[in-house]
Amino acid sequence: MQRVITQVSVLTSTVVLMACGSTAVHPSDGGTQTDGGAQTAKDASPDASGDASKPTTFSQVAYLSTSPERSFPGGATQVLEADKDYIATIETDIGSMDFDLYEKDTPVTVNSFVFLALHHFYEGIAFHRVIDGFMAQSGDPNSVSGSPSTWGTGGPGYKFVLEVVPTLNFDAAGVLGMARTSSPNTNGSQFFITFAAATNLDQQYTVWGKLTSGSDVLNNIVKGEPPATPTRIKEVRISAK
Fold first, then answer.
1. Is 194 helix (H, G, I), strand (E, B) or coil?
2. For residues 134 and 3, what is the distance between their CA atoms, to the nearest angstrom?
3. How far is CA 228 from CA 126, 127, 129, 223, 231, in A?
4. Nearest alpha carbon to residue 135 among 84, 205, 52
5. DSSP conformation class of 50
6. Domain that holds residue 169
7. Three-state SS at 114
8. Is residue 128 a part of any domain in this protein?
9. How many domains does the chain have?
10. Are 95 and 110 in contact (CB under 8 A)?
11. pLDDT digit string (tens) for 29-64?
12. What's the rounded Cα separation, in Å, for the pair 134 and 84?
């Protein structure tokens, strides 16, 4: 399963991290509509709470399917357009979060996430591993209707490479990382969002985006491994300019 091991390794099924005395697993995959209005801009200025204001220059990208599709054994096709700037809005049952996506630095990762989002892949998926002070992990399709014992082991039917960039690290709250197994090139659909800096994960997991709005929602994601009644994703909207 991709999970975080103890705040050292985070994220996928059986991803192991060493953090704060807990045994977390690496956040990772598979081992084990609202309207199309403008979204948060990368260059938006944070308000007093640390969240960015909403811009008017981004347009929602059209979905590629009309209902959720969750198995892609052939892998993700190229959906990012050159020279475009991408952001994502993750709408949950407790509110929405906006993220600046690092499509220039981590093009494979962002393309995969956008591809899956445009196929409604993430709708209904739970935040299945949420460790207070560390991170919230989601992206496993098993969590839609499968037994909680399987949460953290699912993926989209393909895996892809680790993309680490020296200047991108887990240096704050709201950093988006990819979950994986102990093998570095096992990224899939599972991802995590940090609640605080997690420098022990630096250069071990792909950093591919950053929260720009919705810090209150992030902090209110239900905690647990897994939570009894987890926070769930209602929709992911992708916007570009």
1. strand
2. 12
3. 11, 11, 11, 9, 10
4. 205
5. S
6. 3-35+56-240
7. helix
8. yes
9. 1
10. no
11. 444 333 333 333 344 433 334 444 455 699 999 999
12. 32
State the average pLDDT over residues 91-110.
Answer: 98
- Cβ neighbour number for residue 225 with a 10 Å cutoff: 18
Cβ distance 137 to 179 under 8 Å?
yes
* Distances from the Cα of 133 to the Cα of 62, 137, 202, angstroms: 35, 13, 17
Cα gap 202→193, rounded to integer Å: 14
Q: List the single range of 22-31, 53-62, 164-173 with lowest mean pLDDT.
A: 22-31
Residue 12 included in any domain: yes
Residue at 199: amino acid letter: T
The reply to whether 41 falls in a domain is no
Helix (H, G, I), strand (E, B) or coil at 146: coil
Burial class of 175 by CB neighbour count within 10 A (0 to 12, 13 to 18, 19+): buried
CATH number for 140:
2.40.100.10
Tokens of 86: 């991408």
Q: Is residue 11 part of a domain?
A: yes
Residue 26 has pLDDT above 70, yes or no: no
Tell which residue, 190, 120, 115, has the closest CA to residue 150.
190
CA angle at 226 for the pair 125 and 124, rounded to the nearest 5°: 10
Task: Please say whether the beta carbons of 190 and 27 come within 8 A.
Answer: yes
Give residues with Cβ within 8 angstroms of 151, minimum separation 6.
1, 126, 128, 129, 140, 142, 143, 226
**Torsions phi, psi for 55 (to 5 deg):** -95, 180
